[in-house]
Structure formats: structure tokens, C-alpha cells
Amino acid sequence: MGEQRRYSKEYKIEAREAAEELGIPSGTLSGWRKKAKQGQIYLGAGNSTPESAMNMAEELEMLRKKNKELEKMNKRLQEENEILAEATAFFAASRRKSGKMNG
When comparing pLDDT for 98 and 47, which is higher? Predict the structure, then answer.
């Protein structure tokens, strides 16, 4: 066997809270760990089939495409925010100048 890993108390608490937040019973986690150690591939409740593997691959591809779209949209929105910030600064400066002339 390999070297036994040691985890801090805080790490263990965070892991337990994450599992609880996801609604994963500790027994399920133990089963997953056991299967992972044995090198078994599993999906859901142990129903690993070619169809389910394909569905997972399709879902992964769909999520990758969606992520790419969201990254593109995020970049565009960041650029728009920069433009709006510059325009706001420009108009605020011109307003200050016109206020000084009229004052």
C-alpha cells in the first residue's frame, strides 16, 4: 500500500460539510472510495453502461461548449463595462468643465 495521507481537522470538517451540502451520505462516499481504489468506473448508483458513458461524454461536451460561450460573453461584458466606465468618466469631466464655465 502507499503512504497514508493525513488531513487536518479543518479539512475533514470542510469535506464532511461539502458532502452534507450535496446530500451525499457518508456510506455512499465510502463506496465511491472503495470502487476508486479498485479502479472500477462507476456512474450514479453503479449503473455503468456504454449508453450511460456516452450520455456522460455528450453532457461533458455540451458543458464545455456552454462554458466556452459563457467565457466569450463574460469577456464581451467586461469590455462593455470598461467602455461604460470610460464614457462615464469622460462625461463627468466634461460636466465639471461646463459647470466651471457657467459658474
Answer: 98
Angle at which helix 9-22 crosses helix 26-37, to 10 degrees, equals 110
State the DSSP code for 48: -
CA distance 14 to 38: 26
Nearest C-alpha neighbor of 5 from the set 33, 29, 27, 24: 33
Total Cβ atoms within 10 A of residue 35: 14
What residue type is assigned to position 55 of the chain? N
Asked if residue 45 has pLDDT above 60, the reply is no
State which amino acid sits at residue 19.
A
Contact call for residues 42 and 48 (beta carbons, < 8 A): yes
Which amino acid would we find at residue 37?
K
Whether this model's pTM surpasses 0.70: no
Mean pLDDT confidence for 29-43: 69
* pLDDT band for position 53 (cuts 50, 70, 90): low
